[in-house]
Design goal:
By secondary structure, the protein is mainly alpha-helical. It has helices at 27-52, 56-73, 89-96, 108-132, 135-140, 143-163, 169-188, 191-195, 197-215, 225-229, 245-251, 254-273, 281-298, 307-316, 322-335, 338-345, 349-373, 381-395, 409-423, and strands spanning 8-9, 23-24, 82-84, 303-305, 400-402, 405-407. Strand 5 (400-402) and strand 6 form a beta hairpin. The radius of gyration is 21 Å and the shape is globular.
């Protein structure tokens, strides 16, 4: 079997058939659909680096390049977009002492070293899966575990994001208005507009904040000077990783969370397309791990496959992996605009906090959705304990210390979920 499939033109217009992964549409259609995927990932891929104090321009640029890399490594057989992972936010804040959404992270290098190590571990897991098959990884992380792991990310981040506006009445109200904007778009809109709820909600709440502060003088006005001074085109600034044992030990376990996310996404895409892409799981893990390593080595966040873009495929019924090449190229173009980065830097903390509330809530619910879709039986005490204990450990940021090694709340909860699932399987039938 060749590395890449043999692509053929789409001929299912008359029967309104879905576009398969190895089919392609006319260039004009592919261009529009690729741009739609870029917009779909845009809100989250920008928000994640902003919250962690990374350069959003570089994050967008690397998301595009990493998507192209993913396409090459998987042979174009797994339609997916790679964007900034929210799983890193809590651990990055822990090792760098950075306050979420407070601007540039001054200890970025320490976090980057951990992200590079995490990517290497993730890629190594991919190699093992390619050599040994997928059964063991599916047994190690069944839906009850993957659902809990995904939920833990959102629950663990909740207290941190609320803290950024606590005690500031105006900022707290603006955060809730941002939530209302995004919620309104999610509920009352349809189609593409609904898929872009993060981006459109950010824009709408930004305009409301501008009106309240710059025009009505109710808070600190937005400073637009950096936008006027920024160039239209330019290469974003790169950063160099600093390898700290503590940071690596805290951040590296996120590899297991990325495995859980990617496993769920590959299963979801397979179910939608009707194609068995599970054999490509090892390549997908390796590609995502390699992308995370490369991204972290130049100063950008870790990468993961994006549920937003899976949602776009579900709506459009277009699963052609070539569309993601177009989306990746669009992202590269955006990442090479400093003016775009300057515009992102003017987003107020309150707006970012409101967006975070929505995003972290959606992540939490996505975990519950995994349980529902896979019909996890919670009348079974094994499943009940495997899910319940890690959720509280993650939400309470239960950290384990082994000498100088500090396993953060997300890492502790993830390992406990996997361990309990393994331990309780020895129950006598």
């Amino acid at each position: 079997m060749s590395w890449f499939p043999t692509w053929r033109p789409y001929t299912g217009q008359k029967e309104n058939r879905a576009v398969a992964t190895n089919e392609y549409l006319p260039f004009s259609h592919s261009l529009i659909l690729g741009l739609q995927h870029t917009f779909a990932m845009f809100g989250a891929t920008v928000l994640a680096p902003v919250l962690m104090g990374f350069n959003p321009n570089l994050a967008i640029l690397m998301s595009g390049l990493c998507t192209l890399l993913f396409f090459l490594v998987t042979g174009g057989r797994v339609p997916s977009y790679l964007g900034s992972s929210f799983a890193f936010i809590s651990v990055v804040a822990t090792v760098t002492g950075h306050t979420i959404g407070s601007g540039l992270n001054l200890n970025l290098g320490i976090a980057l070293g951990g992200i590079v190590a995490c990517g290497l571990i993730y890629a190594f897991i991919g190699v093992i899966v390619m050599l040994t098959g997928t059964r063991w990884i599916e047994s190690l992380m069944p839906p009850v575990v993957t659902g809990a792991v995904v939920m833990i990310i959102g629950l663990n981040l909740a207290p941190v994001t609320i803290k950024s506006v606590a005690g500031q009445s105006f900022e707290m109200w603006m955060a809730l208005i941002t939530v209302l904007c995004m919620g309104g778009i999610a509920v009352f809109s349809k189609g593409l507009m609904q898929r872009l709820l993060l981006l459109l909600g950010l824009i709408l709440s930004y305009c409301i904040y501008f009106t309240a502060t710059n025009l009505l003088h109710l808070g600190q006005a937005i400073n637009f000077t950096p936008i006027a001074q920024a160039a239209w085109f330019g290469i974003p600034q790169f950063s160099t990783p600093t390898f700290s044992t503590h940071a690596i030990l805290v951040i590296a376990p996120i590899a297991l969370i990325l495995v859980a996310e990617n496993l769920g996404h590959v299963k979801a895409v397979g179910a939608m397309t009707g194609e068995d892409i599970t054999p490509q799981l090892g390549k997908a893990f390796f590609a995502d791990g390699l992308a995370t390593t490369i991204s972290g080595s130049v100063g950008a966040p870790g990468m993961t496959t994006y549920g937003e873009n899976i949602g776009v495929m579900a709506v459009t019924k277009v699963y052609s992996s070539l569309i993601f090449v177009v989306a990746g190229l669009f992202a590269v173009f955006l990442g090479l605009s400093p003016k775009f980065g300057a515009m992102i830097s003017t987003i107020p903390t309150a707006v970012l906090t409101g967006a975070s509330i929505v995003v972290f809530g959606l992540i939490t619910i996505a975990g519950a959705k995994i349980w529902i879709e896979n019909k996890v039986d919670f009348s079974n005490n094994k499943n009940l304990m495997v899910a319940a204990v890690p959720l509280i450990l993650g939400a309470g940021n239960f950290e384990l210390h082994f000498g100088n090694f500090n396993l953060g709340g997300i890492g502790t909860a993830t390992f406990v979920a996997i361990f309990l699932n393994w331990l309780f399987q020895f129950k006598k039938i």
